[in-house]
Amino acid sequence: MRYSIETIKSLTYDGLRPFCDQIRALLIDNFSEHGGHVGSNLGTVELIVSMLKEFDYHRDYIISDTGHQSYLMKLLTERPNVFASIRKTGGLSGFADKYENPRDHYISGHGGSGVSACVSLVEALKRRPDASRVICLVGDAAMAEGLALEALNNLTAAGHSRLILVLNDNGWSIERNLGNLSRIFGSAQTSESLFNLLGFGYVHCADGHDLHALAAAWEEVHRLDGHTVIHVRTVKGRGLPVAEADTRRRLHYTDPFDPATGQKRQTFEGLIRFVDVNAAALCDLRREDERVVAITPAMCGGNGLDVFQDEFPESFFDAGMCEQYALASANGHAIAGNIPVVALHAAFLPRAFDQVFQDICLQNIHAVLLIGRSGFAGPDGPTHHGVFDLSYLRCLPNLTMISPRDGNDYYRAIRDSVEKAKGPVAILTPHAYTVFSPELRNQSLPPPAAIEHVSAGEDLLILCTGVTYSEAMSLRDKLSDKGQSVGVAHIRQVKPLDKALLRHLVTSYKEVLVLEENTAIGGLGSELALWMKQEDLGLPLKHFAVGDCFYPHGDIPSLREMSGISHAKVFEKVVFGI
């Protein structure tokens, strides 16, 4: 059977049952082999198929607010590549992407923003007599995003165009939903009251996997005039027992896995994720000081905090998909005398830049930001790459920035930042596995240097940060094999720079090379180049950084090659000038 809109249109709702079952089986096979966003997509099979049956894909506007729930659209609509290429280098994106298919209309990698796009689209279309319907598929957790609520606050009465808000309510974001809106959505009666007050008609579908129940609900939607919410109850991870049994995240996202057991196919012996150091450090600190609190926006597991949450639930605060509130809440905790530690991914920090500026740095509070997945984010692509962090954070006064080179260094950075810092600290770590020595937790160590002269040389000094440390060491080895005397210095404290130590280091060499996994504009290299010129050091400086563009998804080594910052590409440029 061909997976297409034409097939969906040709089938009755009875005929769509085996069609949906085949799609779900195909998804499970693909996820188990390649990984991806499992739970959310297994839960929307019947809903998305019914949407494509009920609406005109080529005339109406169907927009997915949180784009990771749009895998089915990749399968069922025209794409430039095969479905199995999803999230691979050169393949399909794991999110809605208008560059793959203009009928996606919108690149949606974050929750809540698609609602704003749809509300403004309706407002733009409402006076056109030939206007189409705007259908916004949004998860229940994303409705708590301030951006989504701001959009609904600006929605006016329907004209020739109407908004149909498809509320996919599975009770989860990445993890289980929290907060007052979640409680309101738990009842059809309170949900209807809320949406009626906001100017929507309301239709409830109690089982979003029952195709006949969906058909009846869509019939009611078509009967109503004006803006309408269709509130559909779905089950995250539907049809995959290991996902439905996952009480933490319903197998939200995973690497390739065994569908029978849920076990990942690849393990990293002796290594842990950088974010898993978070719980080790914070649990130790909380045992010693009850003022330590951990805050995260809907990503406890993604930020390695499961163990902390289990041991210290009274000191753990999940803000839901509300990054601005998560960062602003650090100020409230600081006023109360706590030491707030906010853990989140670099992908979501720009959403709360104003709070980092106004509520944390301007007020110079003692808060620690643990920013994971700084640098390239791999298969999640341009909406998630953390290659702007150094640039937009370095400009903020009062902020100390640290970029540790491994898990042991990271543990020390967290401890020092909580125990000794007086103002705000941001610690940036890559999307990678790392070494970590548990015995370090019981040792008293001297404070590390702001800049570590890892290896000495005479000709060329490579300056790197934590994210690029391994590439710098590999580059040193390749250049040394060519007869160059190469040193490496790891800039652990990115801001403020220890310029006295820097001067001592760079003037010991004939040439300097800066390697960073951040945009060249406003990054570490640009600051060093300006400083060296102002100091009239007279040393040549080569700067290798991410270019002024949005890089696609792919594996991280390929992205480093593409951007010219891999040790192999830098070696070619330095030695051969290519």
Question: What is the structure about, briefly put?
Answer:
With 578 residues, the protein is α/β, with parallel strands linked by helices. The protein contains 22 helices and 19 strands. The strands form four sheets. It has a seven-stranded mixed sheet, with helices on both faces. Strands 1-2-3-5-4 form a five-stranded parallel sheet, with helices on both faces.
Please tell me the CATH architecture of the largest domain by its name. Answer: 3-Layer(aba) Sandwich
Report helical residue fraction.
25-40%
Q: Determine and state the CATH class of the largest domain.
A: Alpha Beta
Helices, by number, come to: 22
Silhouette: globular
List segments where confidence is low: pLDDT < 50 over at least 5 consecutive residues: none
Outline the fold blueprint.
Layout: H1 5-10, H2 13-34, H3 38-42, H4 45-54, E1 61-64, H5 71-76, H6 113-125, E2 134-139, H7 146-153, E3 163-169, H8 180-185, H9 188-197, E4 201-205, H10 211-223, E5 228-233, H11 241-244, E6 272-273, H12 276-288, E7 292-296, H13 306-311, E8 316-318, H14 323-335, E9 339-345, H15 353-361, E10 368-374, H16 389-394, E11 400-402, H17 407-419, E12 425-430, E13 433-434, E14 451-455, E15 460-464, H18 469-481, E16 486-491, E17 493-495, H19 499-506, E18 511-519, H20 524-534, E19 541-546, H21 556-563, H22 567-576
Parallel strand pairs: 1-2, 2-3, 3-5, 4-5, 7-8, 7-9, 9-10, 10-12, 11-12, 15-16, 15-18, 18-19
Antiparallel strand pairs: 6-13, 11-17, 14-16
Helix pairs in contact: 2-4, 4-10, 6-7, 12-17, 14-15, 18-22
